[in-house]
Specification:
By secondary structure, the protein is of the alpha/beta class. The chain contains 3 helices and 5 strands. It comes from Amycolatopsis albispora.
Length: 110
């Protein structure tokens, strides 16, 4: 599936309960992430498929929405129901969605 054809949802249109997969790198995750997200960096995903939530659909997020579109396309090609979160964590943060860090620092998107 072409990333341009991937199902996409705006942060403001996410359902009440959903499974979120964050595919950013470790340093991006450490700077700030959604509290309920599962973190598997994009480069590690093929070897860690067993760790994915079983939820359908699986919402995929990165910093701006580009990597997550590629991952969602790949996951859909693997038979998973995956949806890209448009605008990524930048949109998440801009819309006032909750963010946390492991160290208790002020969360940010890097």
């Amino acid at each position: 599936m072409n990333p341009a054809e991937v199902p996409t949802v705006d942060v403001t249109e996410l359902p009440g309960e959903f499974a979120l997969l964050d595919v950013r790198e470790n340093y991006e995750w450490a700077a700030g992430h959604a509290p309920e997200a599962v973190h598997i960096p994009m480069s590690q995903l093929p070897g860690r498929l067993a760790e994915l939530p079983e939820a359908t659909p699986l919402y995929v997020i990165c910093r701006s929405g580009v990597r997550s579109a590629n991952v969602a396309a790949w996951l859909n090609g693997q038979g998973r129901d995956a949806v890209n979160v448009a605008g990524g964590m930048e949109s998440w943060h801009a819309n006032g969605r909750p963010m946390v860090t492991e160290q208790g620092a002020e969360p940010q998107v890097v």
